[in-house]
């Protein structure tokens, strides 16, 4: 682990000041986990063992709670790699801390990277979603002290262009004249997944408002598969999970929202404490009756 110095900017940061005192007090501990690249192993067991070795009251549940607070407030980006390992990246690491590692000639240096780089697409979407949240609150990035100090080895132009690729493709497709919304058949993945989402929504709320143009809703699923490179089986897992989660089932009420929040949903789903399947979950696995209810809305 690299040597770190924590700057006194944590005392006056407007964005940290918006957190409850308990979470503000946790921040220095978390900062010390990062390497010279602003990244760290975000597995809750690793976090607990690393920065809370003498704090038995800090359960895995509490560690996840703190991690979620930092993530939702824009201080921590968390992602899951292809092997299911969780990693964290502090977008503003350079604002709150710095490396104390020096080469033989006295110049500041970095240790060899042992953590993966944050995925540019997901990182960009994370930052964009935070910007939307702040705008909805009537605030802007400067009000919240969001002078993002991204790792210089992460090319900002690459991050922006990579993240914008699928969105630009969406816009280009929608602007092409004479191109009609494709007709999805019942055996297509977009049709099946869209129907699943709406059927589970009706299972939670029989009076749920189902979009009238279901074919248009399926376009978002088609783009998730074709442009975002999401696996249909993974999308189905996320749909089923979000519709039994107390928070997300009230927020994921359209396929466009599902696509926008997919990365966060995937992370939450994989970090939620595994529990024995509830009766409700068992019902969700067999949604034929709800599918029939959806069909009636055609």
Label this structure with key terms.
single chain, 15 helices, Arc Repressor Mutant, subunit A, two-stranded antiparallel sheet, mainly alpha, 298 residues
Range of strand content: 5-15%
Oligomeric category? single chain
User: Residue share in helices?
Assistant: 40-55%
User: What is the element string, with H for helices and E for strands?
Assistant: EHHHEHHEEHEHHHHHHHHH
- Compute the number of helices: 15
Structural class: mainly alpha
CATH topology name of the largest domain: Arc Repressor Mutant, subunit A
Q: Are there runs of 5+ residues with pLDDT below 50, and where?
A: 132-167, 174-179, 273-277, 282-287
The total count of strands amounts to: 5
Architecture (CATH level 2) name of the largest domain: Orthogonal Bundle
The CATH C-level name of the largest domain is Mainly Alpha
